[in-house]
Design a protein that fits this description.
Shape of chain B: globular
Largest interface: A-B, 29 and 30 residues
Radius of gyration of chain B: 19 Å
Radius of gyration of chain A: 18 Å
Largest sheet of chain B: 7 strands, parallel
Mean pLDDT of chain B: 93
Number of strands of chain B: 14
Strand content of chain B: 15-25%
Distance between the termini of chain B: 44 Å
Order of helices and strands of chain B: EHEEHHEHEEHEEHEEHEEHEHHEH
Low-confidence stretches of chain A: none
Shape of chain A: globular
Distance between the termini of chain A: 38 Å
Order of helices and strands of chain A: HHHEEHEHEHEHHEEHEEHH
Number of strands of chain A: 9
Oligomer: heterodimer
Largest sheet of chain A: 7 strands, mixed
Helix content of chain B: 25-40%
Amino acid sequence: MPFPPALAAAVARRFLSEAERARLQDLHYRDAGHGYDPFGMHPAFVGFGEAIVQPLYDRYFRVQTYGTEHIPASGPGVLASNHSGQVPIDGMMLWLAVLRSTDPPRIARPIADHFVPALPWIGTLFARGGMVGGSRGNARALLDAGELLMIFPEGVPGITKPWSKRYQLQDFRVGHAELAIRHRAPIIPVAVVGAEEQLPQLFASRRLGRLVGSPVLPVPAVPFPLPVRYHIHFGAPIPVPRDYRPDQADDPDAVAEAAGRVQEAVAALLAEGLRRRKSIFL
Amino acid sequence: VSAPFTVMVTGVSTPIGERLVRELLADSRVGHVMGLTDTPVDRMPLRPSPRLSLHQVDLSRERHTHRLLFGEGRKRELRVVVHTAMHRSAWAEGEKVRELNVEGTRILLSLCERHPSIRRLVVRSAAEVYSVQRDLPVLIGEDHPLNMLPNAPQWVRDRVEADLTVCARMGLSKVQMCVLRMAEALGPGTGSQLYDYLESRVCLRPAGFDPMMNLLTIHDSAVALQKAVHSEAQGVFNVPGADTLPLSACIHQWGRIGIPVPGAWMTPLYRWRRRFTGHDFRYGMNRRRFHYSGILDGSRAREVLGYVPCHPVEWPVADPPR
């Protein structure tokens, strides 16, 4: 642990309003006995995460959310979003958007690529905020427990795509659709507009990536993220439990069709978000 | 209501074996307990009684085990065998060690299958048989990949082999077989690597990592084994404990000082610790679980055996006895 929960709670006390701290008291999570859930999430670190991310969320990226009524208030669900921006700031913004838009607050559990839990300090800190490694078993256990997953079906090719491919969705992997079908969870398409322009890429290096334990390391053209405005659009849930039977999780055609529907929904939300956006920074 | 029956327990000189015997003696459904140990009976804390007989047996020698099972065991109509005996030291290696860990299990299995009255074999395995890696699930189900790494120490290899030896006969024999893969029982004399690790005032851990761990108590270990004795279920069951917490919290709860150091320093530092203090903790064996979380999922044991961990570790243990 980078530091103990007491210190995380002290930071939250210092930077979060009393009302927000009171709201976080209602955070639902599965305490495995010592204040942590089995995956290492701790509510004090959720408050800490909110305290750290909120200046970026409110002041720097000035996040605007749309369609938050589509986030399920309870039960399993999969948030499927586009992924971009060279560093996973979109994940952090989406995490906080869900936390703030739900009452009682819900944690969207980010499903990260395998290399993230192996990153020293970062992997541990993210796990305390709710992140889990991207194995099927982890996702299955969370959906069984009625949790909300945050999945970026484009994976690493999405977040590391060059400027010339901004807002062009990379091929969606199908794992999220298979999980949703098997566990009868709705898929909520999400489009993040703004992140694609935050860090224009100079080049991406696999060799440098290997040095830090990542499949590829994007090298940005600017030293820090640009103050773009984030617009996060939540679409109407795709009613997977109504449209697919659980046994269709083993049918590659059904799974591919569901993943295709998700990709189309995210693409439509992205197009709509771009149409409504006045400028990159406003 | 069936008549009280006889249970044989191996490894009764270990804290878990001893606790299990005490639980069975307090259980009216059990008529007699045959306790097997490799240490002289007069040095045991348990005392023979009309319901308890103690036997010093070398499990790696088939003749010894055969004589007991087909002698007194046959007379008492032995019904259930609980096998908990395993070498506990992580540094104990060689043919003799393997003979107890693996051949002892194989011999016991074979004799149980030939025995006229034995109906059930319960084997205590360990969570260490599972592989813990960054790309594997944190919650470990019974179908989780096993640690078959060629460079795994004999402590692990023997446990995997003994476990699979029993699994390979499941459903093919008249004997019901039940393998309990137990979380680490934190206590003296259990062979717990973490217990040995926490015996130092200062506990080093790899910087930047703080994996989640699950810990079992000796009491819950005995409860799980006792439930398996009375069940008719066959198969592999994970047995988690009531405590799930990060490594740093373990250190803190134990009243120790945790110091993060670069991961590459851990192996040589703990090798020196062993050289100078004789401690058993072997970092190389624990390296992965000191980086990545691995928590046993006890759903199957809960649903089938009715086992729910309810005896948490009594923290803090100010000065644990060595």
